[in-house]
Amino acid sequence: MAVFPPLLPPADKRPPSQFWSSSETFLRDVFQLQTWVALGALLQAALLLFLPLGWAVIPVGVYLASRIVNTLLIWGQLRPNPYMAGVLTQKTSAQFPGSTAPGQQPLVVIQLAGRSNHALGSAHPHFQKIVKYFEAMVHDLEADAANNRDDDDDYGYLGAKTFLANERLASNEIMVLIYFRSYEGLHRFAHAAGGTHREAWTWWNTVLMGKGSTNGHLFSIMHEVYEMPAQHWESIYINYHPTSFGAASFREDVVDPVTGAKKTQWVRPLVDASRGRLSTSKGRLATTQGEDNDKYESNPYT
């Protein structure tokens, strides 16, 4: 059978994971919306104390006007839409590079999350340290994936994606999805001597949950691990930028056709899913040939 051809060209350097900077992202989630509105009103009142009324409203007026004009220009297609950056305007699926059948290899996902129950929420220094540990673990995995050439000894890390919870008044819960080739690789990373995860584990047990701590109950942490055999997982993305497993990176050692030298390149797993076996959920689970949606009258992807 033919290999599913990748849609995105290979890269010479490993693309970064989808883990964002904690200091910038958490700033807007430290307070509730009402608090941010009150802070804005306080700032406006301060301007009124030092500037004439007409001058005091200028900064807010200019900002709002610029946002409205920018929105109208994008809406009228007079300015490029920044939200479309990287979007693939088609139906795609994520498959291991070199696959000739859907879901040809197993996949492991760990869902790692932490939450602050403190009155300061995500602004508390302990929670900021938890987030820093999350970030350091992802950086360790990135470095191992970029430098380790022995697939039998590395962690099998493929990519990571960060989320903020929204069921609370302030998003003071962070979650990271991390993708691995196998549970064995995940276990090696979690128990690596001198690794960031072991360091974070010790810090949690001795500082936050130790006998001398009075704040252990104010912070929460959890993880869930899912080990999925081959042909027991599937993915679909429609008009989406590379995200989650679709944004994973796979190392390939190839020979340069011009110089004959060996080089490393990084491949993304997204392939065309507009037709054939990958066009339906059952097809992506390798239980049909993808014809199970033929009964529907309207299918824009066939």
UniProtKB/TrEMBL annotation:
Residue spans of biased composition, Polar residues class: 278-290
Pfam entry (one): Monooxy_af470-like
InterPro entries assigned: Monooxy_af470
Domain of life: Eukaryota
Keywords: Membrane, Transmembrane, Transmembrane helix
Chain positions covered by the region annotation Disordered: 278-302
Compositionally biased residues, Basic and acidic residues: 292-302
Transmembrane portions of the chain: 36-65
Name of protein: Uncharacterized protein
Species: Sporothrix curviconia
